[in-house]
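WARN retry 2 of 3 for item q-0093 after timeout on previous attempt; input resubmitted unchanged.
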Amino acid sequence: MTRSILWLRRDLRLTDHPALLAAIRDANHLLPVYIHAPEEEQPWQPGAASNWWLHNSLIALDRDLRKLGSGLIIAKGSSRLVLRKLAIKHQCQHLFFTCLPEPASIQRDSRVCRELTKAGVSCHQFHSYQLLGGNSIRRIDGGSYRVFTPFWRALQKQGMLQRSTEPAPKALPPLPNEIDSLEIDSLKLLPSNPWYREFHNHWQPGEAGAFKKLHDFMQQTVNDYHTGRDRPDLSDTSRLSAHLHFGEISPVQIANGLSARIGGTPAYTDNEGASQYLRQLAWREFAIDLLANNPDTDRLPFDSRFADYPWRSDKQAKNLLQKWQRGETGIPIVDAGMRELWQTSWMHNRVRMIVASLLTKNMGIHWLEGARWFWDTLVDADLANNSLGWQWSAGCGADAAPYFRIFNPVRQAERFDPNGNYIKHWLPELSTLPTKSLYAPWIVKTSELFKAGVQLGKTYPKPSVDLQSSRREALKRWESVKRRSNTAGSK
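OK item q-0093 returned
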C-alpha cells in the first residue's frame, strides 16, 4: 500500500499543481499537510496581514480538499521533525513538495530531504512557483542578470509558456485512519488588532477567489491595462499578487489564461495590455532570480556604495516615520496611499513608488523601515518583490532608478489621479476642495480652504517635509556618498 505526503507551503491550490498530481499517481492514501513554522522564515517571519490571508486560505483549501474526499492536516513545529514523525507513523514512502526559491526555504528543503531520506522516504521536488519551472536564466558568461531589460529579453527568447496547465483532480486518495491534526484557529494567525475585520470586503483568499480575480481581469480589464495600470483612481490592475504569493494560482495559469484570452502569445501580440501585464509577471521572475543569486539583498543594499549612506535615525526621523505610517504626512497622494494600505492591506503600485520615494529620499529614512512596514501590512508581502521594490525606490537596488530621480508627489498625483478621485476617496476631509487644490493644499489660499471647510493643522495636517528643500538635502547626501566612494576607489 503506497502512502504519500504532500507538503504544502505557498502552493495552496488544486489546479495546475504538479506536486499534487505526482503524489496521487500511485497513492492509496495521501497526507496533505501544512506545517506552521514561522521561526524557519527568519529573519522575515510572516507579517500580520499575510497571516490573516494565510488563515483564510487554509480554511478554503481544507474545504476544497474535503470535497474531493481528503482534508488538510495542520501541524506546527520543526518541518523536518514533523514530516519525519508523520512518515514513520503512517508508513509513508514518498514526500512531494513544491520548491520555494527563497534562500531560507532552499536550506530548509535540504534539511528535510536529508532527514527523510535517512528514514527511507523518497523526496520529490517540483517547480511551479515560477514561469520557467525552476530553470535559471543566465548571461552568456554564465552570470545572473542584474538589469531587468536584458533579463526580459532572455526570458522571451527562452520561452515563457513551456507547459500547459493541468486541471484539478476529480477525486483524491483518502487520509489514513487516526490522523492527528490541529485546528486552523490554534495557529493563532489572526492579528490581535481588529484592523483586519474589513479585509473581507476587499479580498477572497483561496483558489476560488484567485479564479474570480483572473476571470474579471481577463474579461474587463486586460485590454486597458497598459493605459490604466498607473492610475490608482481606476480598477485596471489584476490584484492577483496575494493569490500568486500564496500559490492559490500559478504564474503559468495566468500566462496561459492571457494567451487563451487574446488568441496568441502575450509577448508577441498586438494586445498591448496583455504584453504589459506579462512584463509585470517577468518583473516577479526577475525579483526571485535576483534574491536567489544575492541572498542578502533583503537586508543589505545591492549597490555597495549605500553601505555607508547617512540614513536619518534621529528623533525627528522617528516622528516622520510615524506620520508616514499613519497617513498623516500632509502630502495628500502619500496619505491616501497609506490609508488605503491600512484599510485594505494593499496599495496601488504607482502609489507604492511615490510613498517609498518620499520616505527614503525626502525624509531620508532607511528603506528597511519602509520594507518592514509593508511586510507587516500588505496581504501580498513577498520577500523578493518587497526587497526589489524598496531598493529600487531608494536608488540602491538592481536596475534602480537613478538616485537623483526623486518623485514629486504633487506632480505624480496631478498626472495619475487627474480627477482627484483617489485622494477624495481615501481623504474625505479634502473632498470638498476643487480638484486643482487637492494635490498641494498648503499653497491654496486660506479663503478657499475656509470655504471648503479645510483647516491645515486641524482637519488635515500641514506638510511634514518641504518637498523642494528635502530634495536638495537628499542630493547632498548622495553626493557625499559618491565622493567617499570615488576617494576609496582611487586608493
